C-alpha cells in the first residue's frame, strides 16, 4: 500500500508540521549533502560527521554537531510558501545551500573541538560569552572580517566570525590567500584556521553530541500558525516619504509633461516586481534584515498607491535605480541609528560590531636556521598590540 502523502491533500498547510512526514531523504537536499560530505573529505575532515536534520531555520544548537536545515528546502510547495510569506529564501540554489552548509560546519568544528576555549581563538575572534544579539550594526567592507554570507554576518558575534572564516577557508577552488592579501586582520584569522584544521586532521572530537533543536518531527503547530507567528517588520516610518516617492515616480519616472502620452504603470507594480531582489540585496550590502525591508516596501507601496503615483514604462530602469537607492538609504539609517528618520528619535542602537578591541592572531615565528625544532602553540610570539579599527 502506497504511503500517504499529506501534500496531496488540500488542507496540508493546516496540518501540524510534525505530521507532514518531512525528511531529508528522497529530497533535492540529499545529493547536495552528498556533495558536501565529499567537500569535507577533500579538506581532511573525516573524523567528525555532522548530523543533518530539518528545522525552522539554518543553525547548529550550541555545543552539538547537528546542522539544522530549513524545512522549506525539502519540498517545492514549502519553498513557494516560504517565499510568499516572507519574500526571502536562504538556500535558493545548490550553490547557496552549500554556502550555508560550510558556515554551519564552522560551528560544528568549533563545538566538537571546543576551539572557543583556546586562548588563540579568543585573541582572534573574541569571547564566546559576548551577548548574542539579533540586531547588530555591521561596518560594511570592514577589513577585519571575511565575506561569505550576506549581511556582513561575520560581524554579528565571535562565533559567527569563526564560522564565516572557516567557510571561506573551506570553499573549494577559492584562493583566500590572494583575496585577503590586503586585509591583514582577516588574513590572520584564515591562517589560524588553516593551521588549526591541519592540527585537527588526526584528532578525535572532544565532545560531539547530536542533540536536535526544533526538529520538524516535534513541531506541533501548522504551517499557517508558523508563518502567522513570524515578525512582520512593522515599525514607525518617518514623515516626508511622500515627497521622496513623488520625486521618484513623477520626476524620475517621467511626468506627463516630460513624456507626453507615454504608457504608464501603477507604482505598486514596480514594488511587487522588485521586492524579491531588493530584500536579498539590501540585506547583503547593509545588514538590514529582509523582514524589515519587506515591511518598509509594503509601507512605501501603500503610500504610493494612496498618492496615485505612476511611472512611464520606458523609464522603469531609472525608477528602479531611484527606488533602490531610497530603500538602501533608509535601511542604512536603521542599521546605524535604530530608526528610519531623525524625527522619530534615536532608538537605543545595537553595539557596533567593530566596537570591541581587536587583537590580531599571532602568527608562528619563522623556523630558526639552526637545528630543526618543533614549534608548539606555547612557542608562538605574544600577541601584538591591538590594531585600530579598519
Element string (H = helix, E = strand): HEEHHHHHHHHEHHEH
- Measured as a percent range, the helix fraction is 40-55%
Strand order of the largest sheet: 1-2
Q: What is the number of domains?
A: 2
- Beta-strand percentage range: under 5%
Number of helices: 12
In angstroms, what separates the terminal alpha carbons? 64 Å
Largest sheet: 2 strands, parallel
Which structural class best describes the helix and strand composition? mainly alpha
- Supply Rg: 24 Å
Oligomer: single chain
Q: Write down how many β-strands occur, each being a DSSP E stretch of 2 or more residues.
A: 4
Low-pLDDT ranges = 345-350, 352-390
* pLDDT averaged over residues: 85
- Overall body shape: globular
Outline:
This protein is mainly α.
SSE layout:
Blueprint: H1 29-42, E1 51-55, E2 66-70, H2 76-86, H3 94-112, H4 119-125, H5 158-170, H6 176-179, H7 184-200, H8 223-228, H9 241-252, E3 264-266, H10 267-286, H11 290-306, E4 310-312, H12 316-337
Parallel strand pairs: 1-2
Antiparallel strand pairs: 3-4
General description of the model:
With 390 residues, the chain is mainly alpha-helical. The protein folds into 2 domains: 15-227, no CATH class; 241-344, no CATH class. It contains 12 helices and 4 strands. The protein has helices at residues 29-42, 76-86, 94-112, 119-125, 158-170, 176-179, 184-200, 223-228, 241-252, 267-286, 290-306, 316-337; strands at residues 51-55, 66-70, 264-266, 310-312. The protein has a two-stranded parallel ribbon. The chain has a two-stranded antiparallel ribbon with strand order 3-4.
